[in-house]
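> call design_seq(struct)
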């Protein structure tokens, strides 16, 4: 009799595959149901724009591109994903800020001393400010990272901070406790504004911190800026061949351990009997059974659609419906271009294309974009993160041309002026490309083709409701033990043997893998007590 435990994972996003990998290595039989024809969820790369001039086409990431936080977790090393074809290319500098109105650029290298040297050329007085900023937040975030890698508890984050004080010495210097706590509870906009003098430093760091989602004046978001300290620990990296090479390697690991990945298998319902999840039914009527079911899908899609109201308490259903998804996040254009941008601020700089390029002229510029968003309209002048991976990874553009990804933020999913995203997508995409050409005029007329992803497109392709790439808002009241709801914060649901493992859960979005890691360890611990 085969006593091997069986796990069925709904969705092949990276968190779900992380869970699957840990279960597979623990001896479970793992099957994954993916609704699209390609796996990886929002960590996926597709070949596009093949032509006579570019027969190999271009390797285009259709979701996340830059991998930072997963390199702080130990997941890649524990799973041994290099054995399954995963190879990373260092991004150094991790990001750069070309000055908008004069010559010069600030490079943020993994090495702090190199970063300080770059800052000194633009804002000498901010050298010590940056050093102190990294010192202050670095000590805090070692404890925060530990709290991310375990299921959340009511006192989890505080307990880790206390442990850090005992193990590593006081978190705060004598006399700075009140000020330190105030920073933690403050907004990231204020944290950066208080810490630096240069308007360029402020714009660069606030814009990068904004990638987590909340606007700069949101309370208790100070550490979105403070996480800059952890970049100097891990750096930023790009998988050779595209972002999706991470999920491809995890799929190969699962298959090597006897598991199966089923593409083109959208799940219609989780099969529930006597209050227990026993499998899933696909839209074409196929049924897959398992000892446990793990949903890597959005929490609302899982509970409201795949489980459904007939299996849930009405008060609970109402609370799931009230989870804050927000009104969109951003949009992105994936461009095949004839050449790389030549930034007016640093035309021959050898480092600018090694990492992200932060294109936001000022803090006021960011606030204008946010103002447009709050009024329900796309920003007239978008803030942009440009990424040119073909410079460090020729695999993504083999025929002499290049790739240019341009992510812009604060694009409302629901438009207030009666317009529809399907009719304005190219107009808004052009606005984003125009930001690049303002910084790098050589890019005018250099577009070969593009793949546009509006908030609506992101929802359609990835199942990310309202185009929120973090699943649900990353406000403090939806983090840690509150994410997605207190009773599901430990990856369990009211349905026995149904688990969650997506970015809807603690600790949230980004290419992190921590939600999948934590879910796997909860399942393995529970399985020792359960009878299947």
């Amino acid at each position: 009799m085969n006593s091997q435990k069986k796990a069925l994972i709904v969705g092949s996003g990276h968190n779900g595959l992380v869970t699957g990998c840990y279960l597979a290595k623990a001896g479970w039989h793992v099957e994954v149901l993916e609704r699209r024809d390609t796996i990886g969820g929002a960590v996926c790369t597709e070949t596009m724009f093949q032509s006579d001039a570019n027969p190999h086409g271009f390797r285009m990431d259709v979701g996340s591109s830059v991998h930072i936080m997963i390199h702080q977790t130990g997941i890649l090393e524990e799973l041994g994903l290099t054995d399954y074809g995963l190879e990373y290319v260092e991004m150094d500098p991790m990001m750069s800020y070309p000055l908008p109105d004069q010559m010069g650029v600030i490079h943020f290298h993994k090495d702090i001393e190199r970063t300080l040297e770059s800052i000194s050329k633009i804002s000498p007085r901010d050298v010590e400010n940056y050093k102190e900023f990294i010192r202050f937040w670095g000590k805090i975030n070692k404890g925060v990272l530990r709290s991310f890698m375990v299921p959340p508890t009511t006192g989890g984050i505080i307990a880790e901070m206390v442990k850090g004080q005992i193990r590593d010495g006081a978190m705060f210097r004598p006399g700075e406790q009140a000020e330190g706590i105030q920073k933690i509870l403050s907004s990231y906009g204020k944290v950066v504004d208080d810490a630096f003098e240069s308007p360029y430093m402020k714009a660069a760091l606030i814009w990068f911190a904004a990638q987590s989602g909340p606007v700069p004046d949101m309370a208790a978001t100070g550490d979105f800026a403070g996480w800059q300290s952890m970049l100097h620990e891990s750096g930023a990296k790009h998988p050779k061949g595209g972002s999706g090479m991470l999920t491809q390697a995890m799929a190969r690991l699962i298959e090597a351990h006897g598991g199966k990945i089923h593409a083109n298998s959208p799940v219609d319902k989780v099969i529930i009997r006597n209050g227990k999840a026993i499998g899933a039914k696909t839209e074409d009527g196929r049924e897959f059974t398992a000892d446990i079911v793990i949903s890597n899908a959005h929490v609302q899609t899982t509970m409201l659609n795949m489980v459904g109201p007939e299996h849930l308490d009405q008060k609970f259903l109402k609370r799931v419906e009230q989870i804050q998804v927000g009104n969109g996040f951003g949009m992105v254009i994936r461009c095949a271009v004839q050449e790389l941008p030549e930034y007016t601020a640093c035309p021959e700089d050898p480092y600018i294309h090694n990492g992200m390029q932060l294109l936001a002229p000022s803090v006021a510029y960011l606030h204008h974009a946010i103002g447009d968003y709050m009024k329900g309209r796309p920003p007239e002048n978008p803030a942009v993160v440009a990424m040119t991976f073909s410079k460090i990874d020729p695999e993504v553009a083999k025929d002499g041309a290049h790739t240019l990804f341009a992510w812009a933020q604060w694009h409302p999913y629901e438009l207030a002026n009666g317009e529809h995203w399907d009719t304005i997508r190219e107009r808004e995409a052009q606005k984003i490309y125009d930001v690049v050409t303002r910084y790098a005029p050589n890019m005018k007329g250099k577009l070969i083709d593009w793949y546009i992803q509006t908030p609506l497109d992101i929802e359609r392709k990835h199942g990310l409701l309202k185009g929120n790439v973090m699943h649900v808002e990353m406000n403090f009241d939806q983090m840690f033990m509150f994410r997605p709801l207190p009773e599901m914060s430990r990856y369990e649901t009211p349905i026995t043997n149904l688990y969650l493992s997506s970015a809807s859960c603690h600790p949230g979005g980004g290419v992190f893998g921590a939600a999948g890691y934590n879910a796997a360890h909860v399942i393995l611990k529970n399985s020792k007590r359960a009878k299947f």
